[in-house]
Amino acid sequence: MLVESGQVAVVTGAARGIGRAIATELASRGVSVVIVDLRAEPLGAVAEELAAAGDGAVVPATVDVADAEAMTALAQRVQERFGRIDLVINNAGIAPNDGKPMWEADLAQWRRVVDVNLFGMLHGIRAFVPHLVAAGRGHVVNIASLAGLSGTPLSASYGTSKHAAVALSEMLLAELELMGLPIGVTVVCPGFVRTPMVEENRDMTRGPEWADRLGADATALLESIEETMKDMLEPDEAARRVLAAVEAGALHTLPTGDVADGARTRTRRVLDAIEASGSD
Ligand SMILES: NC(=O)c1ccc[n+]([C@@H]2O[C@H](COP(=O)([O-])OP(=O)(O)OC[C@H]3O[C@@H](n4cnc5c(N)ncnc54)[C@H](O)[C@@H]3O)[C@@H](O)[C@H]2O)c1
């Protein structure tokens, strides 16, 4: 689908980071944007900035994507206000990263990660896709992660939720295709993008929680993460690559490439296991 002036997009997690950059890029192309976030104050400031950047309308909405009913009500409001919805960007996500193995990690935190990163995405799909189906057009973008294609030790809640986000996206497209519905799906799997989330995570991995429990192997892991972070993508470039993937109709897109070879390694292991099983 071409991204064009006059369309209407919804972007979750738009008060900062990748969501803000995608909303900014859309506004600059004349798309009306509904920006959604938990944080009302920065969201208001972003709304003002975007309104100045383009011709389209900008509507801020303070909503928790983990709240299914609030998301459904939001979709109704957007449909009533604009009479169309073209692009739904499920971007909101969290990455609390306390450096604990899964048998010690806080269960309430695990549930919140799954509630936001997986159910938040599902709520976006359930709230907005019926409007796209009714119109017979549109595109859904789900922001997963390279952590959704490879292992992420010591942040398993995040990696698990992102693997689920990739699977959810693939099955969404399969269901739409099975029903002959011309709606596109793109799942985005970035490595590091320079956002507040990454900076906060970097602070956490340098903190006492991590230092106390890590052996020499994990120190090497942290060093390799630091190395990968040196070439972080800027959010505005990530945003342009996401919209290019939408326009190309790509299901999977890796805007930073497979930076630490994790997706390749994992995929090779699965391929090796298939070969070892003797099936053709
Ligand atoms: N930055 C990276 O390197 C990177 C890499 C891979 C994937 N991602 C994914 O990209 C997405 C955006 O990440 P980012 O780095 O811009 O993060 P960020 O923390 O900088 O911004 C995320 C925004 O989402 C909002 N948010 C969080 N929970 C929410 C909720 N329940 N409801 C509504 N809004 C909520 C936050 O308030 C924040 O404004 C996330 O899904 C993240 O997992 C980021």
Automatic annotation (TrEMBL):
Pfam families in the record: adh_short
Keywords of this entry: Oxidoreductase
GO terms for cellular component: membrane
Residue ranges crossing the lipid bilayer per the database entry: none
Positions in coiled-coil regions: none
Molecular function terms from GO: oxidoreductase activity
Family affiliation: Belongs to the short-chain dehydrogenases/reductases (SDR) family.
PANTHER family, per database record: DEHYDROGENASE/REDUCTASE SDR FAMILY MEMBER 7B (PTHR44196), DEHYDROGENASE_REDUCTASE SDR FAMILY MEMBER 7B (PTHR44196:SF1)
Protein's UniProt name: NAD(P)-dependent dehydrogenase (Short-subunit alcohol dehydrogenase family)
Organism: Halosaccharopolyspora lacisalsi
